[in-house]
Structure formats: C-alpha cells, structure tokens
Design a protein that fits this description.
Layout lengths: L9 E4 L9 E7 L2 E6 L5 E5 H7 E6 L1 H12 L1
C-alpha cells in the first residue's frame, strides 16, 4: 500500500520501537522518509519501500491540525 504522507504527519508503524512507542512524526520526505519517535525522540531514515511496508496507519495529518488551529483562532 502506498501511503501519501507529508512533513509533520503522525504515523503508526506495525512494530514498536524498543522504547515501546508505535507513533512516529514524519520529519523528512525524499528518496527516504525521516521519522522521529514520539516518546524518546530518536530519528531514523527508512527508504520508501520499507516505510510503506511498515506503516499501519496515518494517525493525524499536518493539514488537519493546521485547519483546527485556524478555526480555534477565529
């Protein structure tokens, strides 16, 4: 499955990080996808093929959070 992700999206991977977290924030997009663990802050790079195999779901989109913040400020 090909996941369309953007910088600052929150994703859940299939296997936990050694710290116990399943949740990662997308910090880089290119030939590789850069991820940052939401518990311990560890940063990793995964090639797109590996990322697409390991991602389970996109928890929150960056664009959705921006829209919610805009609505609160109005």
């Amino acid at each position: 499955m090909n996941h369309d992700v953007q910088i600052d999206d929150l994703v859940r991977l299939r296997k936990p990080h050694p710290c116990g977290s399943y949740e990662w924030r997308v910090v880089r997009i290119g030939a590789d996808i850069g991820l940052k663990c939401q518990v311990c802050g560890r940063r990793v790079l995964l090639d797109r093929r590996t990322f697409n195999k390991r991602v389970k779901m996109v928890i929150a989109r960056a664009a959705d959070r921006v829209e919610k913040n805009d609505l609160r400020g109005s």
